[in-house]
Amino acid sequence: MGFKEYQLRLEAYKIRQAEEERKLALQAWLNQNVQATKGSSKHPKPKYTKFEEFYDFSRRIDEIREDFEVGYQGSSRKKEDIGTVLANRIEEFKRLKKAGKIIPLKERRLNHD
Predict the structure, then answer these.
(1) pTM of the predicted protein model
(2) Is the separation of the CB atoms in 29 and 48 below 8 Å?
(3) H or E stretch including 60?
(4) From CA 20, how far away is CA 64, in angstroms rounded?
(5) For residue 86, how far is the Cα from the chain centroid?
(6) Which residue(s) pair with 37 in the sheet?
């Protein structure tokens, strides 16, 4: 067995293990969901409302694939800071406006006849 085949089999094994972890986590979540609460004793609320809050399977698979696949970017990428997103959008707006692809609001003619 070559090294690449070994790596592929190891990745497949770890993904099977993650599936087993998901099954165990689901069972634990179901047990916990019945028992765990937050809030006052008079008005208890479940601690987790969704299973994904308890165990994020897709994030776990992404972690495994990042270990084995060079350049892999998972579907659940880290969320960018809202300030960074806003700054990037403002720069994109300025670039499009300079290129003439955005017409300023004052120059638009809306016909409401």
Answers:
(1) 0.41
(2) yes
(3) helix 57-68
(4) 14
(5) 19
(6) 46
